[in-house]
Amino acid sequence: MSAVGVTKGAFYHHFQSKEDLFRAVLTEIQQEVATRVAQVADAEPDPWDQLVAGCHAFLAASADPDVQQIMLIDAPAVLGWNEWRALDEAASARHLTEALTHLMKVGVIATQPVEPLARLLSGAMNEAALWLAATPDPTALATTKRALTTMLQAFRTTPPAAPSTP
């Protein structure tokens, strides 16, 4: 603890344990990723484009080695699967559920149970992020985004709007 200029007493004043410190770091990283995803998604005017852009932004943020290590590799190991899932749910699955619910409400995605769909998509993106962490392929992020877009298109009930011509 001396490496960061904090005494053991000061550390334990703020955190009960190293696990509590890790939880605080994880929460901060999850919030940073959620903010990046929301900013990218909110920049799109169309709800469908918001979903796709948000999913792509998650993959891009998850391509950061520090994010991968802390959020996807260490967190389940340190905190346990159930707590990691609960934190992941609070940080990102809720937003994905809201986006999917809205898309169903406006008829872009067929009405269906949203909870399993959100978990399937979240799980697929988490697995893709873990794969991205392990692959040396420099084109992997771009090809993964294309594959994710293709997968998302399968849920769409309405075709994309034709581009307007001048």
Walk me through the structure.
The chain is built from 7 helices and no strands. The model has no long low-confidence stretch (mean pLDDT 88). By secondary structure, the chain is mostly helical. The N and C termini lie far apart (63 Å). It is globular and about 65 Å long. The longest helix has 25 residues, at 18-42. α2 (18-42) runs parallel beside α5 (81-105) and α3 packs antiparallel against α7. The protein has one domain: Tetracycline Repressor, domain 2, CATH 1.10.357. 74% of the residues lie in helices and 0% in strands.
Can you summarize this structure?
Keywords: DNA-binding, Transcription, Transcription regulation. Helices cover 74% and strands 0% of the residues. It has 7 helices and no strands.
Q: What string, H for helix and E for strand, traces the elements in order?
A: HHHHHHH
How does the overall form come out from the CA principal axes? globular
Major β-sheet profile: none
Low-confidence stretches: none
What is the mean predicted local confidence, pLDDT? 88
